[in-house]
Amino acid sequence: MYEHVYNDETMPSKNISITDDIYNGLVKLKRDDESFSDIIGRLMAERKKDPLKFFGILEDVPDEIFDDFEKGMDDLKKSATTKANEKIEQEW
After folding, report:
1. What is the pTM (predicted TM-score) of this model?
2. Antiparallel, parallel or unpaired: β 2-3 and 17-18
3. Burial level of 36, CB count in 10 A (0-12/13-18/19+)?
4. What string of DSSP letters covers the chain?
């Protein structure tokens, strides 16, 4: 576990303990000009983004595209089911 003590006289601070894997993940995400507080704040802000931001983005896509996609998914499911059944029959 790592413990980082960030001492900024202008801001109150808290000490936290995190596991090695979380620390290593933060190091990979950290930009050169960021403190660990900065990166945690950035990640929290990104998480709060508007979930409806892309609502309606596909409204201009023709229905035929969705129909083709749905048919392709159905075909894929049927193919996977057939292959799984064949594999089961071979094993038994």
Report:
1. 0.42
2. antiparallel
3. middle
4. -EE-----TTS-----EE-HHHHHHHHHH--TT--HHHHHHHHHHHHTS-TTTTTTTTTTS-HHHHHHHHHHHHHHHHHHHHHHHHHHHHH-
Are 44 and 26 spatial neighbours (Cβ–Cβ below 8 Å)?
no
Section 52-57 average pLDDT: 81
**CA distance linking residue 83 with residue 76, whole number of Å:** 11
pLDDT tens digits for 62-85? 999 999 999 999 999 999 999 999
Burial of 38-67, coded b for 16+ CB within 10 Å and e otherwise, reads eeeeeeeeeeeeeeeeeeeeeeeeeeeeee
Report whether 1 contacts 18 (CB < 8 A): yes
User: Does residue 2 have a pLDDT over 80?
Assistant: no
